[in-house]
Amino acid sequence: MTTFASLGVPHALADVLSAQGKSEPFPIQADTLPDTLAGRDVLGRGKTGSGKTLAFSIPMVARLAGQLPGNRKPGRPRGLILAPTRELATQIAVAIEPLAAAYKLRVTTIFGGVSQNRQVSALNGGVDIVVACPGRLEDLMKQRHVTLDGVQITVLDEADHMADLGFLPVVTRILAATPPKGQRLLFSATLDNGVDKLVKRFLTDQVTHSVDEVNSHVEAMTHSVFEVDGVEAKKKLVQQLASGTGRRILFMRTKHQARKLAKQLTEAGIPSVDLHGNLSQAARDRNLLAFSSGAARVLVATDVAARGVHVDDVQLVVHVDPPAEHKAYLHRSGRTARAGSAGDVVTVVLPEQRRDTAVLLRKADIKVTPVRVTSTSPQVAELVGEQARYVEPVKVAPQQQPRQGSPRNGSPRQHAAGGGRRRRPAGPATSQRSR
Asked: How far apart are CA 433 and CA 344, in angstroms?
């Protein structure tokens, strides 16, 4: 059996991983670690949930602590990891901090949506590794709170999503500010939308490792398409799908609908939280914590959660609203069946959505036979499994609204943008195993 130690991972880091129950590396880790630990530039291509975070976190810490030792200086990190979303940046930091602690390296996150004061303070105190979203990092660079001329290893994670969000010009300027002789690791599911230009400009004599293409499927993931007769039938079906004991993520197209569904489910005795762009960072963190801790069994999200949000043991992903394009379908679905676990994916389809959904699934290379169901169909009961007990919704007294012209704790607009501030946690023919 291949082990982390046999791949050249230092014993101190192998011990940290072993304590976390990680003794055998995933394919993308086994393939890339010999090259990344040797200092090579690497282009890693693997779908979501394949283990990319550890694939670059291990060599980042190992090399900064061993082959590339240096003194910690204010505002001059030695390692840089770029991520497209704050959720992903936060989760990368959570993964890398125990490894960094083994060598007393300091890690900090930089992203928008929160005050920059804490981030500036951390930079001034000296950090070894920065995990950042491009927009806020460039802001702090312009303000001269951080300079990248001391960066020895740069990682670009989810590069294709950076492109989808329009970040490539900012990413290009950031990478250009790092030393050209530094090690660079780029991880992406695809090389479209300009990602290939980043590879050509910033990676030198890179080694390419393609573990899984974006359309390749997790063997332990099943896909089902449930067709319903109308909106009311869909509402009942979605509530039934949400009623199981395991964690579920339900995807909606709009922020308003995500917030509304989370409230409806909670009031029906199914503790749920929402995740979307209208939430403040504090509300996002609070809702994700409720979901990951089990205080809420259901997360109702827009596509902001399709990338970067990793919570263990998500048993079911429901496309309550089918996504607009096939890449979004694959990334949403990738929230389940991660890291070797099994999971199910259901798409709920209204009559007017059948044709578009068929096209979407064909582009995603998902072969499944749709079936008409109701909330009481045996196929639904089989998928849901044991139903969780009813949880009495918590009654929250309404807060007094501040008088106009004298907002309390921020402007009325800030209260609206905060979203969820008062929210409490609240068969063979139908599915086919992906090959």
From this structure: 9
What string of DSSP letters covers 316-341? EEEESS--SSHHHHHHHHTTSS-TT-
User: Which backbone phi and psi does 304 adopt, to 5 degrees?
Assistant: -60, -25
Alpha helices (runs of H) in 177-254, residue ranges in sequence order:
195-202, 231-241
Count the residues in the chain: 435
Query: H-helix or E-strand containing 208?
Result: strand 207-210
Q: Residue 219 to residues 52, 311, 342: CA-CA distances in angstroms?
A: 18, 19, 8
HEC sequence for 263-288: HHHHHCCCCEEEECCCCCHHHHHHHH
Report if pTM > 0.85.
no
Mean pLDDT confidence for 91-100: 95
Nearest to 177 by CA among 202, 207, 206, 203: 202
CB atoms within 10 A of CB 10: 20
Residue 48, pLDDT score: 58
| Per-residue pLDDT band at 193 (split at 50, 70, 90) | confident
Helix (H, G, I), strand (E, B) or coil at 245: coil
Q: Which residues of 283-306 are buried (b: 16+ CB within 10 A; e: fewer)?
A: bbebbbebbbeeebbbbbbbbbbb
Nearest-angstrom CA–CA distance, 1 and 237: 45
Contact 240, 75 (CB under 8 A): no
Burial label for 122, CB within 10 Å (0-12, 13-18, 19+), is middle
90/348 Cα distance (integer angstroms):
31
Closest CA to 301 of 326, 330, 332: 332
Handedness of CA 77, 79, 82, 85 (dihedral sign): negative
- Three-state DSSP at 302 gives coil
Three-state DSSP state, 63: helix
Buried b (16+ CB within 10 A) or exposed e, 397-422: eeeeeeeeeeeeeeeeeebebbbbbe
Q: In what order do the strands lie in the sheet with 129-132?
A: 107-110, 129-132, 79-82, 153-156, 183-188, 42-45, 207-210
Measured CA to CA, the distance from residue 78 to residue 150 in angstroms comes to 5
Q: Is the CB of residue 277 less than 8 Å from the CB of residue 304?
A: yes
Instruction: State the average pLDDT over residues 52-75.
Output: 92
Give residue 313's region: left, alpha or beta (phi > 0; psi -120 to 50).
left
